[in-house]
Amino acid sequence: MKEGIHPNYRDVVFHDTAANVKWITRSSLNTSRTIKMDDGKEYPLVVLEISSASHPFYTGKQQRILDTAGRVERFNKKYAKKAA
Asked: Is residue 34 part of a domain?
């Protein structure tokens, strides 16, 4: 492999601030922040506003608003044959 053309691939801590969840994974993202984890090592820190830990699609806590009363009427109104 050529030297100097590949990104620095290392352990990085991702922190989801919405759910206050932290996990260590490998990444090539550049960041100036660092954090000291429970294992005593210092890792680069990437702060996220939303991840699978806090996104409603992944957590299943999305609001499900069902408007069953007006659906049939809206369908009939939209696709009804116009009187000639």
From this structure: yes
